[in-house]
Protein: Alcohol dehydrogenase IV
Organism: Phanerochaete sordida
Amino acid sequence: MSTVDTTNYDSTDLNGFYSWTETLRGIQYGPGCLETALPKFLDLIGAKKALIVTGRSLYEKTDVVKQVEAVLMKRDAYGGVFFEIGQHSPIAGIRKAQKLFKEAGADVIVAVGGGSPIDASKAILYNLQKENGGPLLKQIAIPTTLSAAEYTAGAGFTNDEGHKIAVADPQLAPSAIILDAKLTLATPERLWLSTGMRAVDHAVENLYRPQVPPPLKHLGYAALADLFVNLPLSKANPEDVNVRQKLQIAAWMSLWPQRFEKYSAVGLSHSLGHKLGATYSIPHGITSCLTLAPVVALKAETASREDKEWLANALFYLRIPPSGSIDKDILILSDAIRNLVRNLGLASTLAEYKVPKEDLPLIAEKALGRADDPVHSKVVKLLESLY
């Protein structure tokens, strides 16, 4: 006689708030949807001339940007392309793109690529609004990675001193998003899979991030289930467009668009990634590969009962038998994340990126927001373990 495991920790956070972002007009998804989706969205938001914002590699080494250019030219809506957006969105590139946007007489940005061009485009539009007044102009995002920057209303970029800073406004969220998996085929494997781990990071940290309501946490569970299945499948068969499309949808579920009543802090893995990424030139996807599993393990020691319950229940969606102990279940989840990173060929160390050990206390302090945080010493030890 078979039995059904009834372990289900009783989360009790039944109070909260949810609102859809004001800006997003639509998400079109499906292999090959670019040609019909982009004209539709231009009409929907009333845009006449678009500047494409992207990175150099995508522009010079693939035909992805040329496909977008062709659609815009067919509509007589092409205002040029700026392809000097680097990793972590340096401010120098943002300034150049602002100048080109004005010279082209553009009224919309079409951001093509990963989180850097999408966040850079938000910063460009933010700065233009500060310069000129009036409403924020709009962005159409065409992501080719799984970093999910297109679903947020904030933008992170690197200032002249090499520090990651952010701007946020509900109107900065892209007005339209096009998820065309065919456009991701040219994305390098390491970038594709590591940004998939970034999506895993989003889904896991939303289980304990402040102000995330229960329905979105359950979407995070669904995202985790799909990411754990389809990331290895995509590594095994990179040309499978259907698997890639499923991963784009899973990344969407991992960071479902929402408006917060007030600023909602990111989780510790993201905060550490922000401090490590720009300063030491570590890609965001790789920072998630480094930090997420040990941060989850730390939560077994430091998290509230409520947050522990949400984390432990993730095992059900990953089809991993529970241990009967909430703290052990969180450690099992941490091991599952670590094994996924290893199986995807993404394991690395801080030593590989030449992060000085003497910097670790300051990195922990900046990630936590204060030097006297009760878990500061534990976070320093966590970072030491990444060598």
User: Anything to note?
Assistant: The chain has two domains: 26-184, 208-384.
